[in-house]
Amino acid sequence: MHDKEIQYFTKALQQAGNEFYLDSIGEFRALIEEFPNSELVDDALYNIGLCYFQINQFEKAIINYQEVIDKHPNATISVLEGGNEFGKTAAKCQYAIMNCYLGQGEVEKAKQITDLLNKYNEDSYVLLNDKKITFKELSEKAIKTFLNS
User: Fold this and answer.
1) Computed from CA positions of residues 3, 5, 8, 9, in that sequence, does the dihedral angle turn out positive or negative?
2) Range of the domain at 59
3) CATH code at 85?
4) Domain count across the chain
5) Cα 136 to the chain's mean position, in Å?
């Protein structure tokens, strides 16, 4: 991996952390354009989707998440220092799409995505308090919370 890839990625994450979402999208896109074969491309696409999600551009977020699923189905989540997500980036993207549907009030579509998460059940998860919680479990909990609010 090139230093410049990491610089793009780090700068984009910092911008997103400071809520400069459009600037962050630009940095992630620069990484993708300059290093299309980078192992960070799937993570950059995921983060572009996340930036769109943060500004309630759910359709644009879904497009980026779906691109990861379609073009990088076997990519794994890059584990950064202190990271707690493991497994397939596609599982993380399916979960994110489910959240987009909830953001749009599309509960039935969210439930359909939750069903798709079955194929990632044990190998893709978030580690919270030393306990593995699958993206499917997170999805089910999010739908339940949404319906009870």
Assistant:
1) negative
2) 3-148
3) 1.25.40.10
4) 1
5) 14
